[in-house]
């Protein structure tokens, strides 16, 4: 069912000429959720049937190293700028997430859960728990950030006239991790390589800056 729903998403994306809202992951989530509701299937039952797909997420993530290897020469030349951009992005993501949730009156646990939203879901769960967040909420926020980034970020980058493939990939990986990287791979090999690199480095940078920033901002 999961693979079928994803294929429907890919078909819809092709039929709409790559429309942003026809993001295959988003379409798959909507379709699977609708089927579970209509059939009365519990999430635990669904998850047990989709365990193989969950297992394959690890090898699929490792496979992102392939486009990165092909673009290694460009990565080496841009390394200083990439490291600075990723560090700045991690700090910005953590600070804005905490401050915005606090301004909206959310409890500290919610702010802590939102603080790691720019990292991949397993990392977000672990980091948010480290600073007092709610792991389940952190997972939802990370997935939501990934989907929203994949849907809206390409158009926003185009609107801002950011045409450099390296910059577009870095931005996508920094805000929407794996889901954004899959969207970047659809744009081009360079975008996908830099997005995959940004995804990994953002997780490392966030792990380094989140504890001290949370200590300052979460009181």
**Overall number of strands:** 0
Major sheet characteristics: none
Structure classification: mainly alpha
- String of helices and strands: HHHHHHHHHHHH
Q: Helix amount, in percent?
A: over 70%
Give a written overview of the molecule.
With 219 residues, the protein is an all-alpha fold. Helices cover 83% and strands 0% of the residues. It contains twelve helices and no strands. The longest helix is centred in the C-terminal third of the chain and has 29 residues, at 189-217. The termini are far apart.
Question: What is the topological layout?
Answer:
Layout: H1 2-15, H2 24-39, H3 43-49, H4 51-63, H5 65-70, H6 72-77, H7 79-103, H8 108-114, H9 121-130, H10 135-159, H11 165-187, H12 189-217
Summarize the structure.
This protein has 12 helices and no strands. It has helices spanning 2-15, 24-39, 43-49, 51-63, 65-70, 72-77, 79-103, 108-114, 121-130, 135-159, 165-187, 189-217.
Highlighted features:
mainly alpha; single chain; 219 residues; 12 helices
């Amino acid at each position: 069912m999961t693979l079928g729903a994803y294929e429907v998403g890919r078909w819809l994306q092709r039929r709409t000429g790559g429309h942003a809202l026809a993001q295959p992951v988003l379409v798959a989530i909507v379709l699977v959720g609708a089927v579970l509701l209509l059939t009365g299937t519990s999430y635990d039952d669904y998850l047990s049937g989709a365990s193989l797909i969950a297992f394959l997420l690890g090898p699929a993530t490792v496979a992102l190293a392939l486009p990165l290897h092909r673009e290694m020469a460009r990565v080496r030349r841009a390394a200083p700028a990439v490291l600075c951009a990723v560090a700045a992005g991690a700090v910005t993501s953590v600070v804005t997430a905490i401050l915005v949730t606090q301004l909206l009156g959310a409890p500290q646990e919610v702010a802590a859960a939102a603080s790691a939203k720019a990292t991949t879901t397993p990392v977000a769960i672990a980091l948010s728990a480290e600073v007092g967040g709610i792991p389940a909420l952190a997972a939802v926020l990370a997935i939501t950030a990934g989907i929203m980034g994949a849907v809206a970020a390409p158009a926003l980058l185009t609107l801002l006239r950011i045409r450099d493939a390296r910059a577009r990939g870095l931005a996508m990986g920094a805000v929407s991790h794996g889901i954004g990287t899959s969207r970047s791979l659809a744009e081009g090999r360079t975008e996908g390589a830099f997005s995959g690199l940004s995804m990994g480095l953002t997780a490392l940078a966030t792990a380094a800056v989140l504890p001290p920033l949370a200590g300052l901002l979460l009181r």
